[in-house]
């Protein structure tokens, strides 16, 4: 199920200060939620004497959230394109399990492997969705979710006997299930010695299998 080719990642052009602010913001938002973290606190925790550092570099809190979201989404997209290209190159119909894996694996491995942009991202994404369920779709639609839409297209083809309205409802369940589990896994991975189950590759495979079962349930 694992695909190893390295994706072509976007070039980073942030200054050291901007990267530091974003790392701190991503972690604070992930751990405490979006509303409970102020821009002044982000600046202070990032070691900035100027409490207006976030406003100077990003403008508004919403602009910072948008940039954090796109930072992660474009890198996950790069990984997901590689994953999907490999599956589609087989020349056989894409199964439900493969399509679900293309949703799960790139997001999980991004969090595990990209210390600069991936650390805390799945928890940040869950917190962002909780405070504004439409923020992610509004921000990513038409640009940074093409790979995810490809996955849904494969899922629709793999379940032709399921009415479209039922498919859409299950895709909603699927997104929430995967997002919640990946966020929980990410939190547990911080303390891998106490939670070795979450670090095991078999656990990631089981997330894929149980998510696929949700889609295929009769």
Automatic annotation (TrEMBL):
<dbReference type="InterPro" id="IPR036271">
    <property type="entry name" value="Tet_transcr_reg_TetR-rel_C_sf"/>
</dbReference>
<dbReference type="GO" id="GO:0000976">
    <property type="term" value="F:transcription cis-regulatory region binding"/>
</dbReference>
<feature type="domain" description="HTH tetR-type">
    <location>
        <begin position="15"/>
        <end position="76"/>
    </location>
</feature>
<dbReference type="InterPro" id="IPR001647">
    <property type="entry name" value="HTH_TetR"/>
</dbReference>
<dbReference type="InterPro" id="IPR009057">
    <property type="entry name" value="Homeodomain-like_sf"/>
</dbReference>
<keyword id="KW-0238">DNA-binding</keyword>
<dbReference type="InterPro" id="IPR041586">
    <property type="entry name" value="PsrA_TetR_C"/>
</dbReference>
<dbReference type="InterPro" id="IPR050109">
    <property type="entry name" value="HTH-type_TetR-like_transc_reg"/>
</dbReference>
<dbReference type="GO" id="GO:0003700">
    <property type="term" value="F:DNA-binding transcription factor activity"/>
</dbReference>
<dbReference type="Pfam" id="PF00440">
    <property type="entry name" value="TetR_N"/>
</dbReference>
<protein>
    <submittedName>
        <fullName>TetR/AcrR family transcriptional regulator</fullName>
    </submittedName>
</protein>
<dbReference type="Pfam" id="PF17939">
    <property type="entry name" value="TetR_C_30"/>
</dbReference>
């Amino acid at each position: 199920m694992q695909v190893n080719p390295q994706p072509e990642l976007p070039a980073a052009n942030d200054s050291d200060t901007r990267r530091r602010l974003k790392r701190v913001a991503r972690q604070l938002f992930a751990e405490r939620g979006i509303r409970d973290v102020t821009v002044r606190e982000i600046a202070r925790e990032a070691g900035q004497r100027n409490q207006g550092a976030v406003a100077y570099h990003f403008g508004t809190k919403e602009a910072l959230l948008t940039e954090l979201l796109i930072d992660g989404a474009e890198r996950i997209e790069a990984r997901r394109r590689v994953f999907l290209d490999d599956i589609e190159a087989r020349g056989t119909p894409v199964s439900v399990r493969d399509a679900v894996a293309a949703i799960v694996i790139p997001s999980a491995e991004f969090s595990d492997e990209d210390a600069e942009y991936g650390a805390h991202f799945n928890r940040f994404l869950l917190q962002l969705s909780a405070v504004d369920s439409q923020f992610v779709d509004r921000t990513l639609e038409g640009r940074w979710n093409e790979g995810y839409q490809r996955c849904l297209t494969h899922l629709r083809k793999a379940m032709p006997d399921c009415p479209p309205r039922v498919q859409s409802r299950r895709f909603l369940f699927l997104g929430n299930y995967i997002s919640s589990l990946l966020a929980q896994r990410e939190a547990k991975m911080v303390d891998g010695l106490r939670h070795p189950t979450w670090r095991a590759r078999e656990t990631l495979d089981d997330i894929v299998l149980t998510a696929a079962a949700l889609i295929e349930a009769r």
